[in-house]
# Entry
Amino acid sequence: MKKITKYIGMRTLKTAIGAALAIFIAQLLGLDYGVNTAIVVILSLQNTKRKSLNLAGVRIASSVIALSIAWAVFSVIGFNPAAFGFYLLLFIPIVVRFRLNEGLVPSSVLVSHLLASNSVAMASLINEFAQMVIGASIALVLNLYIPGIESHILSDLVRIKQLKFGILGKMGNILCKNEETGDIRSLLSELSERIKLANQRVTSEHGENFNRSMDYYFRYLKMETDHLDTLEYMERQVAILSESDEECGIASEFTLKILEQLKRQSIEKEAVDMLREYLDAYSYRGNAKTREEFRNKAALFEYLTDLYRLLEIKSEFLKSLNYQDRKLFREMHEEIFTSRNDLE
# Structure
C-alpha cells in the first residue's frame, strides 16, 4: 500500500476503488441509473472516519426526505418542470433546517431520475434509495479500513504539539533551576523534521484532493513553522539567562504562563496585555552598570519579545479562520489534546 500511495494519493485510490465497486454492485442488483452510485461515493468520501460516518447518515436521511416529498409532489402535480421546482421549494428549507445540506445535491439527483422515468412506484423509490445506501455505505467502509490523509496529518500534528510544548516546558524548567540544561536542540531538530514531513504529506495530496481543508493545513503548518523559528531564537538566550538569578526567574515565570496560553483554543487578551505592558516598562528601565548586566537584560528583553511573538503568531492564525476553519480547528484541538503527551 505504501508503494502505491507514493505515486497515487490515498483519496484518489479510495475514490477509484469505491466508484468501481459501487457500479459493480448496482449492476449486480440490476438497479436502473446504477452509475449514480459512483457519484454518491465520490461525494461521500471524507478524510476522517467520524466525518464519513456523519455524512453517510446525512445522505441517507436526506434521501428518505427527498423521495417522500417527490412521491407526494409528483403524485399530485405530475411529472413536469413545475413539479420539480415545487419539490425544491419544499425540500431545500427542510434540509437547511435540519442541517442536512450535504444531502441536497445527491438526493435531488435521485429525484431527477423519478422525473425522467415518470414513475413514483414503490419499485422506483426503492431503486433510488438503494443507490444512496450502496454509495454511502461503500464510502463509509473505505474510510473505516483505508485511512485518509487527515489521519496521518493528525498524527503529525499531535507530535508537533508534544514537541513544541515540551520544548517550552523544558525552557521554563531550566530557567527556574528545576532541570539541568537539557538537549533542547535535538527536540528542535525533531520538530523541524516533523513539520517538514507534515508539509510534504499535505503537498502530495493537495493536487488531487477535493477537500478545501488542505489549504487550512498549509496555513496551520505555516503557523507551526513560524513558532519553530521563534523557538530557535529563544533557545539561544536560555543559556545566558540561566546564569542570572533575577532575569532567569522572570523569564521562567512568563514562559510557563505563555505555554498555558498556547495550549488553549483561544488566547486571553489579559495575558497578551500583561506581557506587552511588562516589555514596554522594561524597555524604559535604567542603563546596565556592567557588561554582564547589560548582556542579561538584553537577553531577557529579546527572550520575552520572542514569547510575545509566539502569541502574536497564533493570534494572527486564529483571526484568519473562517467558520469552517474554526470548526476544523476545534475538532483538531480536541483530538490533539486527548492524545497522550510523551514529553510530559
Q: What stands out?
A: Residues 1-7 have pLDDT under 50 and may be disordered. Residues 149-337 form a domain with the Four Helix Bundle (Hemerythrin (Met), subunit A) fold (CATH 1.20.120.940).
